[in-house]
């Protein structure tokens, strides 16, 4: 197994990264998977629209609590999955030792995951579908 500890990152850690975290946990129960935000809404639950998307797939992420990314989490992770090229650059500039283990979730399709925060349920549903698809693309590599 190449990766034991996986960190999924977005901005607020209430929409995209928790959805990806819970998909990956479902697919890979033996791995340690966490999520965090670059400017996290610390202490908040996942966005209700994100929770709704996951409930449709019978995945319960109501227990999710947002947390801030930090050096310890970056060191802990064998693989860091981000939502955009900008987030990847930000992490590599802030923590240069992370270079080589930061990839976009949509890496295999060369895609970013747009932020659904404060958009409608339809936008969340599409984001959720994309995240699910990109998480599955990683399956062969984990």
The helix/strand class is alpha/beta
Number of domains: 1
Quaternary state of this entry equals: single chain
- Distance between termini? 7 Å
Flag low-confidence runs. Answer: none
Query: Which sheet architecture does the biggest sheet show?
Result: 4 strands, parallel
Give the total of beta strands. 4
Mean pLDDT: 97
The level 1 CATH classification is Alpha Beta
Computed Rg: 14 Å
Protein name: protein-tyrosine-phosphatase
Family: Belongs to the low molecular weight phosphotyrosine protein phosphatase family.
Catalytic activity: O-phospho-L-tyrosyl-[protein] + H2O = L-tyrosyl-[protein] + phosphate
InterPro entries: LMW_PTPase, Ptyr_pPase, Ptyr_pPase_sf, Tyr_phospatase_low_mol_wt
Describe this protein's structure.
This protein is α/β, with parallel strands linked by helices and 142 residues long. The protein has one domain (5-141): Response regulator (Rossmann fold, 3-Layer(aba) Sandwich). 39% of the residues lie in helices and 13% in strands. The protein has helices at residues 16-27, 48-56, 71-76, 85-94, 121-138, and strands spanning 5-10, 32-37, 79-82, 102-104. Helix 4 (85-94) links the parallel strand 3 and strand 4. Helix 1 (16-27) crosses helix 5 (121-138). The mean pLDDT is 97.
SSE diagram, text form:
Elements: E1 5-10, H1 16-27, E2 32-37, H2 48-56, H3 71-76, E3 79-82, H4 85-94, E4 102-104, H5 121-138
């Amino acid at each position: 197994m190449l990766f034991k500890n996986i960190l999924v990152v977005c901005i607020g850690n209430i929409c995209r990264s928790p959805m990806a975290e819970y998909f990956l946990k479902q697919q890979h129960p033996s791995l340690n998977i966490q999520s965090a935000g670059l400017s996290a809404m610390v202490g908040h639950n996942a966005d209700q629209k994100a929770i709704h998307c996951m409930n449709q797939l019978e995945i319960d992420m109501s227990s999710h609590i947002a947390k801030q990314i930090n050096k310890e989490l970056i060191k802990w992770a064998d693989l860091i999955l981000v939502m955009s090229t900008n987030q990847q650059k930000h992490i590599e500039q802030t923590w240069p030792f992370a270079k080589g283990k930061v990839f976009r979730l949509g890496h295999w399709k060369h895609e970013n995951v747009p932020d659904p925060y404060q958009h409608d349920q339809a936008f969340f549903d599409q984001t959720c579908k994309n995240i699910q698809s990109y998480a599955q693309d990683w399956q062969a590599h984990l």
